[in-house]
User: What shape does this take?
Amino acid sequence: MNSTTYRKMRKLVTKPQLFFEDARLKRQHPELERHNAGLKEAKTLFKQGDIPAVEARLTAIPDTLARKTVFSATVALFAKRYAEAERCALSAMQGARPNTSLFREAFYLHQESLRFQGRFESALIMLKAIPFSDHSARYFRAWRLASLGAKCPEAFESAMIRFTPGDPGWLRSRSHYILLLRDLQLGERAIAEAKLVMQQVELEPVRQPKVQPARSEAQKRRWQEKAGLALAQLKEDLAQFDIDFFLVSGTLLGCIREGTILGHDTDIDVGLMPDVSMKSLRNAIKHSSRFKLQEIVSENTLYVIHPNGVKIDLFRHYEENGKLYHGGIKCRWWNSPFQLVKADFLDNSYWIPEDTDTYLTENYGDWRTPVVNFETFLETPNLEVTDQTAMKLYYFSQAIGSRRMSDHQRYGRYEKALD
Assistant: This one.
């Protein structure tokens, strides 16, 4: 038996539903293998940020192929063509069965397209009629964001009520509900809910400590390559609107101390000077097909994501009391005023604060000594809390997560922060 036959037989035995679904598609599309190869190539180009080449590849693939329409919805979301994304996602759902992963992917893309159009009530109607069972994080996220847009916490409660402690999805539902209450400015209710969740988690038996697996060297390199590409393409897209950014926080630390992006980092941080308005920044991102806005609202910060999955936080700095500030939802960080200079980094040239030692010392203290598990919202010397309720809720979430992981040291730190 050759390898191709073996793979088919294995799929028939282990995933019969997927086997017959593929067989049905092959009957509908005799050239399915060629189309799938073209789609795979388009996805690779998408992760590289080559959007014109992606769209050229897609024109050669028939619209009747559901996998193409799902991917087309993703591309349209990045291009800010939200009505087109909605149509593609709906078409994909109509061509797939509700209990397939393809249908689910299309469903959540359809949700996202509705929210970006401000059609939150329509999103809630679709969620109420959801034709499959789900308790994943994206399920509760869809409920939370639609309920937030509609300013209707009762809608989320209708989905949450069927989950009780011990059920898969119970903690996720409660966590998203707390975020919803926070964003609806219902801080006291959010704190009360967080306390109830904390009490319930503390009743759970103590487990064996779970150690989060560290990235391998190969994984670090892949992350650094993706992050470097996203950073370079952000520079290109903002330059078209005469907007310059500079490296800040962990990205600057990696540049100065390591000469590369930190291998254990999870996002990219860049700053913009006060002369760059949020309106002009949003307009530049609006015209980029390589960066999609994340659905996070903050007065002086924009959160975007590249097609390869790298998230970038764009912090607009502002002046106050002789200092430069930047921040997000729950806090801000100050720095002494600084000038910018160019630095070579990742085969490119980026602006950085001229006095990097002062900047990094204000942010990290002893920045020359690597600390992999640095707790940003506990250990940053220049942090100022701007929303006590939001910060307290963050501490609750970290304490709950640490308790469930049996990370007693980290749990103790956040418990102390709550006190």
